[in-house]
Amino acid sequence: MKRENFIIRYRWIIIVATLLIVGACIIPLTKIHINPDLESYLPSSMHSRQNDQMISEVFGKEEPILIVIESPDVLNPATLQRIDKLSRAFSRMPAFKRVYSLFQTKNISSEDGSMVVKPVVKQIPETPAEIETLRSEIKSNDLAYKLVVSDDFHYALILLNSNKTIADTELIKTINQTLEKYPGVEKVMMTGQPILRDEALRRS
Questions:
Q1: What φ, ψ does residue 31 adopt, rounded to 5°?
Q2: Contacts of 18 by beta carbon, 8 Å cutoff, 6+ apart
Q3: Per-10-residue mean pLDDT for the chain, 204 residues long?
Q4: How many CA atoms lie within 13 A of 133 on its CB side?
């Protein structure tokens, strides 16, 4: 009974004190920032992180960005032309050290005791027969089949290796502008460390 009387008597003081305490707890939350560097969450003693650092020291600190093109058949001429134009455009950009797609993939064979290296896509096919010939050649090429082209030929990959010379936001903006410059009906999906970091910062 005494406790009820105390609460009723000092109810406004209790309400104001509660609001002040809640407000004091909210203020630090507004200053919270997300660390977008995913590697920093891993302990430095972790073997996989140490191995990754050694690889970076030897081959450089490149970061792969994967662009996946989805189409009912990625070997149709329109889709191949778009992949070709995108690959050429990205290859000319200093932000990317290496670009790898179906048009950078090679077909390695042996002729008369010599190694012969030719592009997988010599020219964009125009007829159904030429498309099926290219499909057969890709299926017999371990450097292309199930790597830059899915086994059902619904997906094609464009791999970009960023040299980390520009900020993530600017890098993604450049990629999106290039995709808009060469439009198509295909669905485009992207992933990679720069994209994940930029997404984390946008949500923070």
A1: -100, 5
A2: none
A3: 62 75 70 58 62 53 85 96 96 90 83 73 92 93 90 94 86 94 94 81 66
A4: 10
- Which pLDDT does position 182 carry in this prediction? 95
What CA–CA distance (Å, rounded) separates 121 from 106?
Answer: 8
Q: Which two tokens stand for residue 25?
A: 């707890």
User: What pTM was estimated for this model as a whole?
Assistant: 0.70
C-alpha–C-alpha distance, residues 1 and 24, integer Å: 32
Residue appearing with tokens 């040299």:
163
Q: Quick count: other Cβ atoms within 10 Å of Cβ 156?
A: 23
Every domain of the chain and the residues it spans: 62-203
Domain 62-203 has CATH 3.30.70: yes
